[in-house]
Amino acid sequence: MTEEAATVAHIDLALVDACLEHFFTASSARAAAFGRPSEELWRVLRKASMGGKRFRPRMVLTSYTALGGDDEHAAAHVAAAYELLHTALVVHDDVIDRDWSRRGRPNVAGSFRDTATTGGLPLPTAEHRGTSAAVIAGDLALAAAPRFIEASGVTGERRSRLLDLFDDAVFASAAGEMADVDLALGVMPTVAEVLQMERAKTSVYSFEAPLQSGAVLAGAPEAVVASLGAFGREIGIAYQIVDDLLGVFGNEGATGKTAIGDLREGKRTMLIAYAATTDCWPDLAPYLGDPDLTEERAAGLRALLVECGARDAALDHIREHTALARAELAALPDELGARLEGLVTELVERVR
Predict the structure, then answer these.
(1) Res 333: pLDDT
(2) For residues 219-247, b (16+ Cβ closer than 10 Å) or e, as one string?
(3) Contact assessment for residue 67 and residue 218, using Cβ atoms and an 8 Å cutoff
(4) CB within 8 Å of 30: residues ≥ 6 apart
(5) Residues 265-282: what's their mean pLDDT?
């Protein structure tokens, strides 16, 4: 299963896009009654939701179709709920990280800041407008996301279960985001603390809940739903460690992500938490978080991360968590297990 595939089994991802497009069109029409600032808010939020890989909808549709689901309307709406949740969390995360761009373009905060500066406002005032707009936009997306589940046509216990899974994802993401903020401010966290934070912040809403939601929607037995949750937890942790590795050792041309940004930020990843426990730390610590870190110095830091065993430790954790994820596949129906095995293989290939 590749992220570039246009369909997941027989349900076209274009149906998910159509759900989102209908939502943004209707919301933009409602906003017109409140004036141009409200219209602009929805225009920028809509733009922020476009162009992604629709990874979380793919997780919903993968489990749903492999388990025999064929209700396109219901599946597309549940999948859209997780995509809009992703948009909300990304918009808020950018505010927390004080970022003004994403994928090389102004994000929601950056768009409103730039409009304000173009209009002649001083930068501090413009930045306040930008962050305020981003908080509001993220809130709008977060509030609207579960309404897609309510509009799916699913009723009774299944509907309640889907809403509970979604609520659990929001709850875990908030806890993980708060932990991420605190881990950056206090003493160096342990490897276990970093992995716990990453699991809560990203894995639950990206893997666990979407996979389980697809299974619940398909009417799968609870044992299958539980195994998908365990699989999602382990593969989600492995996915985050891979991202951390690529953020330092990756090929920017292949990943689209700079391999120096995490070092300049001093991001407290699993790599850094491990390195902090080694004899190499006194040579690493003074340069982490330096916004002016040169490529030459960054190359030296990478060499130290290899020398101290941090890179090997990360690879060991990836192997451990992918093995635990694979162990859950035996409890799943063959077709679903085969599709998820493809996800594991794809993940491992990213770091080879």
Answers:
(1) 96
(2) ebeeebbebbbbbbbbbbbbbbbbbbbbb
(3) yes
(4) none
(5) 96
